[in-house]
Predict the 3D structure of the following.
Amino acid sequence: MEAPFAAWIDRDVVRASGPDTAAFLQGQLSQDVSSLAVGASTWSLLLQPAGKVDAWLRVARTSDVSYELDVDTGWGEAVTARLRRFLLRTKCELELAPAQRVLAVRGTEVDGGRSVVWPGTVGSDLFAADDDNRVRDVPIVDAASYERARIRAGVPALGRELTERTIPVEAGQWLIDASVSFTKGCYTGQELVARVDARGGNAPRPVRGLLAAVGAFAEGSELRDVDDKVIGAITSAAGDVALAPLPRTVDIGARVRAGDVDATVVPLPMT
């Protein structure tokens, strides 16, 4: 596990409140949120009826009848619109709040922070923490350093590793373990998740790590195998590390090429 660090990030926030809110979200999200204690948080998938990803988000219960859903910046509007399509004769109000500034702490957990799911490390996200003495001794890094750490951990981002074409298991079994309840009952998109899990969780295009031999990756670059066949494209890049969904036939250790950069497919999280 790397030394603790923190970075300022933005998260979009959707507030849901009303007497039917718990039951409504329970039927829309992959995680068991009705049993979530007030003040607690967990991660969940918001899926299309066919089971592909609309969003990966965190759910925090703020009272018996209210929740906050926070998601990658720029995705709050899409989450709100998706939930409203299923909001029929339900006493639940949805509000897209202004984006919130969050102190993302990695490498250590902080009391009162919201849950973080990063393979290979622990962490907490502190909301409204402009002057927080709880992390006084944790160094603050810039956005580029945070992005590099995200990529090395293999944490997917919406619009990059997670799109409307992604099935959840492609992001990694760890994400399924953290975001899906297999005992809660029915929710939108459940069938595909349950079917893939029953078949052993084989993903057709799992997210893989890439390490450059020399040079830096460019996001969007085509990836080619040793036979010069196009096998995918880089979805996130930070210098000599990158992420890309690749066919499951591409093994860890395989040699690939992104533009003029030679690379190796490596396990996630990257050590």
The chain has a mean pLDDT of 95. The first strand starts at residue 5 and ends at 17. The chain has two domains: 5-153, 207-266. Helices lie at 21-28, 76-84, 143-153, 173-179, 190-198.
